[in-house]
Amino acid sequence: MHDIDDDELRTLLPQLRRFALGLTRDAHAADDLVQSCMERALLKWHSRSIGGNLYSWLCSILYRLFIDGKRHSARINRWLDCLHDEPELAPSAEDTLQARTSLAALEQLPPDQRAVLLLVSIEGMSYQDIAATLDVPIGTVMSRLSRARKAFRSITDGDTPQPVLRIAR
Amino acid sequence: MNNLPVPPTEEELHAYVDGALDASRRAEVEAYLASHPDVAGQVARWRRDVDFLRTELAGTVTRPPQPRLDPAAVRRRLRARSRVRMAAAAAFFLAIGAGGLSGWQLRSMNLAPAPMADAVEAYRVFATDRNRPVEMGAENVDHLQQWLSNRLGTSVSFPDLRSEGFDLLGGRLLATAEGPAALIFYQDRDGERVSLYIRPNKHYSEGTRGTRNDGGLLAKYWYRRGYGYAVVAKASDPRIEELEAALQLGS
């Protein structure tokens, strides 16, 4: 019975990693996030709604973990800033990629807007599913989408200066 | 053009971009856009952004698989983890537990450790030690700094975190397979501790970094100039109440 579940999860894994990468913009952080998500999902496996959308259930777990981690790392980031005697750091492969593709615009969006934009654009989820995944009313999804699209537009148009590369975010 | 359709709301324009309108309304919106080039231009730009994001992230679906993310591996780890707890209990109370424990150790050796797993473990072991978390206290900072720098072969500095409410507690030297590592603790007035861990790095590429939530602890790590650095703190910091509530979500 585990085999059937595992196959189902395995099929969704690449998509889930893509969503995580879109959220975190860092390959390692993304896979750490997916790992925590998989652990959480398997521990709560019995409590998922049978017949519901497994992928959006996984996305909702992953998004909550992401937001929790974000909240907590805000504090740690302040320490990190103190710990870095030299602010310059060799940009990681992800940073280079970002600079090249201007996907960095995504990173400048607040996480809640980023999540909506990713779920709509990349995952092709319906507004209804997104509302369920993020546990917000559909009106909130619409207003986040609207703000996200406008912000993304103005960032890629160059209205906002690109931030310098830094380790703490 | 007097019988123009009702102008679409902004929500409808988004729904149009995302293919969420029904056929009849879609046709009306299309007719409206045909006669309003400025709105049509905006819609076209949104659509380009969707395509851009889609193509940029499309390649990431084919990233090489990570064995540690495979459901079977995750299950194995979850089982191993609950086994650790049982094994720890058994080791305390039953000598017979030893056989099972070594069996578990063998199996866990097959799993690649997560980056900076030792930093998290070091926190777990020493942060809870009320009497002797550090080998050398902060009384003689210069000496401590010199000692750890010499043993690690890199300059170890202790940033001042007093403005954050944390005092330097001290440090200790630890051993890893790659050489000496340093564990440095800070402590706040309530006794909450946060650690900085520095170890030699031979496996991860320069600039690699990440965050991991590992069994109640949060680690942020990065690799630079041949060394790995990690900051570890409790994920359930009582000062962050909403975090605590959110963490209970999954349990």
Give a brief description.
Chain A has 169 residues and is mainly α.
Number of helices of chain B: 8
Summarize the amount of helix of chain A as a percent range.
over 70%
Q: From N to C, what is the helix and strand string of chain B?
A: HHHHHHEHEEEEEEH
Strand content bin of chain B? 15-25%
- If you compute it from the alpha carbons, what radius of gyration of chain B comes out, rounded to the nearest whole angstrom? 27 Å
Report the CATH topology name of chain A.
Butyryl-CoA Dehydrogenase, subunit A, domain 3
**Count of individual domains of chain A:** 1
| Average pLDDT taken over every residue of chain A | 78
Describe this structure in words.
The complex is a heterodimer of chains A (169) and B (251). Chain A is mostly helical and 169 residues long. Chain A has helices at 2-24, 27-43, 54-83, 93-101, 104-107, 111-121, 127-134, 138-156. The termini of chain A are far apart. Chain A has one domain (2-156): Up-down Bundle (Butyryl-CoA Dehydrogenase, subunit A, domain 3). Chain A contains eight helices and no strands. By secondary structure, chain B is an alpha+beta fold. Chain B folds into three domains: 10-61, no CATH class; 64-112; 114-248, no CATH class. Chain B has eight helices and seven strands, in the order H-H-H-H-H-H-E-H-E-E-E-E-E-E-H. Chain B has a seven-stranded antiparallel sheet, with helices on both faces. In chain B, helix 4 (71-93) packs antiparallel against helix 5 (97-109). Classes of the chains: A mainly alpha (169), B alpha+beta (251). At the A-B interface, helix 1, helix 2, helix 3, helix 4 and helix 6 of A face helix 1, helix 3, helix 4, strand 5 and strand 6 of B.
